[in-house]
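May I ask for a single protein's sequence together with how it folds?
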Amino acid sequence: MKDNDKFRESIACAPLSGSIVVQAGPGSGKTTLLIERLKYVIEKRQKNYLGIGCITYTNAAKNEIISRLEKEGVQLPSNLFIGTIHSFLLDFVIKPYSHFFNNEGTPFKLASFGFARNFKNAIATMLKRPAYLIDSSTLEAFESLNRDKNGYPFCYRGKISSDVAHWWKSLLKRNGYIDQQDIVYLSYLILNKYEHIRDSLSARFPYILVDEYQDVTYFQEKLFLLLNNSTFFCVGDSNQSIFGFTGAKPENFISKWENESYKSYKLSNNFRSAKHIIHFANTKTDIEQVEAGTNGTSGQKVVFFNDVEEVSEAIKLFHRIRNNVECYEDYNPYIILARQNKYIRDISNLIKNQEIAPNLFYQKLQKEHYRRYKILYNSMIAILFRRESNFDQAVERIEEAFSYLFFNEHPNFIDLASIGYDKFMWKKLHIYTLQFLDGLILSETTVAELFEEMKEFISNLSKELYGIPIGNKLRMLNYNWKNQGRASKGTTLSQLIDQLEIESNLSNSEGNVISIHNAKGQEAECVLVLAESKSQLDEWLALNIETEEARVGYVAFSRARKLLCVWAPLIEEKDYAHLNENVIFIDSSYISMKETI
C-alpha cells in the first residue's frame, strides 16, 4: 500500500488482537506512529485495568513520548509503563522474584555504574596485571559483560576472556548483585522456569509496544517470546542496527518481519531530509525511501570535501557552507559527528580553541576513591542543574550523591529505615542541601572546604529537623585527599563546575559535537560527518547488509535535514565519481572565493 495518512491510520488502529511489526527508516515519523498506536490502545483496550508496556531504548525517548502525550491532553493511566526494558524488568521481575535465584533468599541488588572499581585489585590479580594498568576502559568492559546464546558470560568488546568473565559474574552473584546486562538474562531465567510468573506478567501487560526493535538483544527476544498472552507492536529499522557491542543484531528484527504471525508494514516516506540526502542513503540499502517532507524539494546535493587535509579546515569549510542554509528555529542548526570519543574530544577542544588542558581532578579522584568521586561529581552536577533552573534534576543528583554518601548504593536500593528516615524526610534533606550548595561562593570554596562544610551542615540539619544524629553516616566526608592534598585545597568549585560544563557539551545529546552512536534518533538542519581515514569512510559507504560499520555510516548520513557534508583526510573526487548523481565535491578554494566576495 502507498505510504500516506490513511495507510498509517490503518496501522495505528489495527485490531488489538494481533501483533504488528513496522519497518520504519530514518525520518519516517515512527515515534508519531508509535504514539498514535499507544493512544489507540489506551482508548480501545477491553478493560481499563489491563496494563500497557511501552518499551523504549533510552530514557530520552521515554521522556519524549510522555511529553508528547501530555501535550496532546492524553490522560496517562496508572497501569501504563513507559521506559527502558531494564527498568521494566527491574520493577516487575527482578525486585519481586529474583530471590528465587539468590542463595541468600533476598532479591538481587543492581550494581551501579562504577561498581567494578570496588574490586580493582581483585581484577588486577585475575588478569595478572599490576593494579595501575587497570584503566577505565578495562573496568567499563567488566561492567558491560553480556551473555552469549548459551548463557555464558561474554565480552562483546573482545577485551575479557570467557573464564575471567565467568569469574566476574560469579563474584557479583556472591555479593548479592547483578549488573545492568544480567537484568535481562536473569529475568529470562525466571520467566522461563516459572510458568505462573510469566503468565502473570503477560496477563498484567497484554499490550506491549517496543521501539527500536533492531537494538533488541538475543535474550530480550527470547524473553518477549515467552509472553504468550501479550500482543506486540514492534517498530524498528534493520539498517540502523549499530549496537553490536551489546549483543544486538539486525537478525532479531528481520525474524520478526518474516514471522507470519505478525502483520508487517513498511513506511517508505522520509519527512526529514532533502531528496539528494535520501537518495544518497538509499544507495546503501535495498529499502527505498522517498522524499515526503518540505525539504524533499531542495536541490542541495550532499557535499564531499575534496583534497582537504586538516579537520580544522574541514570544520571551517562546513560552517562557511552552512551559513548559506536557512535554518528553522525549531531544529538544531548543526551537529558534527565522528566515531570515536577521543576524536570527538579533540574536535571539541579545537572548536572551543582551548589552550589549557582540562582539569584532571575528577579523573584522579575517580581512580583513587570512586565512592567519594560519586559524591563530589553528583553534587557539582546538582549545582550546574540548579544554575540552569532545572530544579528536579538537581534534586535527583543530590539524591544520588547522598545514596553513595550514606549507603554506598544506587538510589533504588537504599534502606532509609536503617537511619530512621522516611521518603519525605529524605527528600527534604536533599532540598535543603541543594539550597546550601546554591548559597556557596563557588570561586572561593575549595573542594576540601566543601566536604568539611557539607558534613557540618548535613549533621546539624538532621538534628534540627528530625532530632536524628547521622554523623556516623557521613564518614565519607572525612578524607585526607590521597595524592590530591594540595589539589583539593587549591581547586575551587567554580573550576570543577566550568570543567563539567565543557564535558556536558561533549556528552549532551543536544550538543554540537557528538558520537554517531549518541546521534541515533537525532536530527539537525546541517550535519558534518568526519571520518578519521579514507578507509573508515569507505566502510561507512558500503552496503548496510555487509557490516555494522556500514550501518554506522547510514545512521550518520541520515541525521541531516537540509545539508550533509562528508570529510576524510585528503580524499579525491576520482575515487567517488560513482556518487556524482547525488554528491558534489568542494575544496578549500570555496573559502577563499567567499572571502573575496
Summary: Residues 354-358, 505-510, 592-597 have pLDDT under 50 and may be disordered.
